[in-house]
Design the sequence.
């Protein structure tokens, strides 16, 4: 039996790797590597894991980490842009940094800032820092975020990228039980092509996707 890809919904998948904790499948179409739903942790376990994190808004080290996304994103934004920090966690440092840079930022997090009203407005930019690897429904969530962007808007993502099966087997990223989707450069190129988006890879783990200026919705 094959597993359905949660990003492109095809059945063209095969077992990519298996460790002691769970199997990892890979889609031949979009090249996403993913954990099957049967191996997800429960919502309560997921929340408990996140609550172990101690990411403070004013922590210099955490801000330095987030600057890898904040700085290149700000270079692409007009002054006083309006954005959404999606999956901001309990300590929304990235939103604070972007606010300090002169932008207006709404917050959303399924566990910590669950305000669905912010998911019904248009935005000039949306950030998802260390978020997409947690998504159980990446196709639906990414489509929703993309639809919220105005024409010419930017989606800024930070996530580690799959490089090879050999590197994957030694990768610390798969040891986190809440990480269930693993994107590669090829996956993002596929997604950008499907959505007529411009994609820029910044460093090792930042992806900035820009909506076509003539686009509306999806």
Sequence:
């Amino acid at each position: 039996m094959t597993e359905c890809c949660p990003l492109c919904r095809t059945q063209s998948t095969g077992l990519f790797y298996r460790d002691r904790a769970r199997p990892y499948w890979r889609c031949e179409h979009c090249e996403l590597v993913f954990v099957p739903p049967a191996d997800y942790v429960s919502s309560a376990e997921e929340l408990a894991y996140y609550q172990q994190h101690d990411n403070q808004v004013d922590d210099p080290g955490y801000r330095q980490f987030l600057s890898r996304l904040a700085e290149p994103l700000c270079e692409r934004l007009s002054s006083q842009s309006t954005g959404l920090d999606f999956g901001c966690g309990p300590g929304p440092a990235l939103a604070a940094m972007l606010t300090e840079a002169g932008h207006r930022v709404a917050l959303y997090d399924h566990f910590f800032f669950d305000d669905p009203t912010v998911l019904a407005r248009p935005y000039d930019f949306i950030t998802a820092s260390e978020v997409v690897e947690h998504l159980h429904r990446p196709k639906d969530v990414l489509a929703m975020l993309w639809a919220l962007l105005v024409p010419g808007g930017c989606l800024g993502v930070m996530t580690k990228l799959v490089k090879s099966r050999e590197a994957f087997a030694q990768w610390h990223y798969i040891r986190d039980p809440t990480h269930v989707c693993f994107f590669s450069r090829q996956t993002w190129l596929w997604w950008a092509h499907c959505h007529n988006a411009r994609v820029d890879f910044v460093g090792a783990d930042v992806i900035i996707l820009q909506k076509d200026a003539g686009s509306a919705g999806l």
Observations:
- DSSP finds six helices and ten strands in the chain.
